[in-house]
Automatic annotation (TrEMBL):
Keywords: Iron, Metal-binding. One of its GO terms (biological process) is sterol metabolic process. InterPro entries: Cyt_P450_sf. Gene3D superfamilies: Cytochrome P450. GO terms for molecular function: heme binding; iron ion binding; monooxygenase activity; oxidoreductase activity, acting on paired donors, with incorporation or reduction of molecular oxygen. It comes from the Eukaryota. SUPFAM superfamilies: Cytochrome P450. This is Uncharacterized protein. The lineage of its organism: Eukaryota, Viridiplantae, Streptophyta, Embryophyta, Tracheophyta.
Length: 81
């Protein structure tokens, strides 16, 4: 999996986001051996699934509060007839 992800990463410019095409190229694979990730063990033979919504919740990068000022300054929606 690492080689596959490295290939995708090399095709991107600095700061460029993944596209749906990139995601579809990421094949699911089985753990070749027991692997420990952040204190969790993925047993040999298990599949690892990537969840984009969880991956993008890195507190250093995911700052939903940055939209608060925009929401406060946005015009109210027009009245419905």
């Amino acid at each position: 999996m690492d080689a596959e992800h490295d290939e995708i990463a090399k095709s991107k410019q600095e700061g460029e986001a993944l596209t749906w095409e990139d995601v579809t190229r990421m094949k699911l694979s089985r753990a070749p051996e027991d692997i420990e990730v952040d204190g969790y063990v993925i047993p040999k033979g298990w599949q690892a699934f990537w969840s984009p919504c969880v991956t993008h919740m890195d507190p250093a990068k995911f700052l939903p509060s940055r939209f608060d000022a925009q929401a406060a300054s946005a015009a109210p929606p027009p009245p419905l007839p």
